[in-house]
Task: structure prediction
Amino acid sequence: MPNSDSILRIALQKSGRLSEDSFRLFKECGIKFESGTGKLKTSSSNFPAEFLFLRDDDIPGYVEDGVADIGIVGENVFIETNRKAETTYRLGFSKCRLSIAVPRGIDYQGIDDFQGKSIATSYPRILGNFLKEKGVKADIHEISGSVEIAPSIGLAEGVCDIVSSGSTLLSNGLKEVEVIFRSEAILITNKKLSKAKHDTLNKLLFRIKAVQTAQNYKYILLNAPNDKLQDIINMIPGMKSPTIVPLAMEGWSSIHSVLEENQFWENIEAIRSAGAEGILVIPIEKMIY
Ligand code: PRT
Ligand code: ZN
Result:
C-alpha cells in the first residue's frame, strides 16, 4: 500500500473532448483505474493516485484550492479562469485555437473594424486582453454557449470561440478573421505540493515522457549486403548505435535501429538506394533514454 501522503489526486474531465485522450494517456502509462461507471472519484489499483472526474471549467479552481493536486485541462480554460497553478507539462492533444469570426459577407479589413462594435464569446478575459493589446474598444458580450449564432440573431457583430476544423463556423455562415490564442491540453499542478506528492508527480511525468517520446520514434529492421552496412548505419544511427546481426545467407546482415518517424520518411529512399531490403518499421510502446 502506498503511503497516503504520497497519493496524487488527479482531476480529469468527466466526459468531453479531453476525456478520451486523458484516459488513454494514463492507460499507456500503465496506470489502471476504473472510469465511465458514473463514478466521480476512483483510485488506481497499481499507482499512488486518486482520480476526480469533473467539468473541465472546475479543474483549475480545484487545483488552485488543493482539492486536486494536479489536473488536465485545455490551456484556454486555464487562462480564462485565471486560477493560480503551475503549468507543468504540455500534453500535445486537444489542440485548438480561439478565434474571432464574422459573417462571411463582411469585407473585413482588420481588428480596428471592431471599434465600437460588439463580440459574443465565452472567453471574455482572453478576448479582453487581446482587444486591449490592440487598442480596440469593443463591447464583449459574454454568453456561455452557442456563440456562433450571435451575429445571425443580431446579438453581436462578431464572435470569439474555439475553432478546430472550422466546420462549425462554416455551417453558421461565419469566417475566421483573427486567431487570438492557440491551445492544447496541459497538466497543471497545485503550487504548494508536498515533497511526497512531488515524488509521485515525478514518477508520473517520467512515464508520460517515455510514452510520448516513443510515439515519435519507430523501431526499424532491415537487411543489407555487408559491403553497404556502413553507408546505411550512417543514415540510421539509433540511440547509441545500431545492432548488426549476421543473416544465415553469407555476406548479408540485419540492422536494427531506432529512428524518429519524420527522419524515417525523409531517409527511406536513400536507405533503399543504398541497398537495404526487407525493411520493417515497428511502433515502440515506451522509450527511455
Ligand atoms: O462538460 P464540460 O464543461 O466538461 O466540457 P465542455 O463542453 O465545456 O468542453 P469540451 O469537452 O467541448 O472541450 C474541452 C476542451 O477541448 C476545450 O476547452 C478545448 O481546450 C478543447 N477543444 C479542442 C475544443 C475543441 N477542440 C472544439 N472544437 N473545445 C471545443 N470545441 C468546440 C467549439 O466550441 C465549437 O463549438 O467545437 C466547435 C468547433 O469545432 P470545429 O471542428 O467545427 O471547428
Ligand atoms: Zn466546460
The radius of gyration is 25 Å.
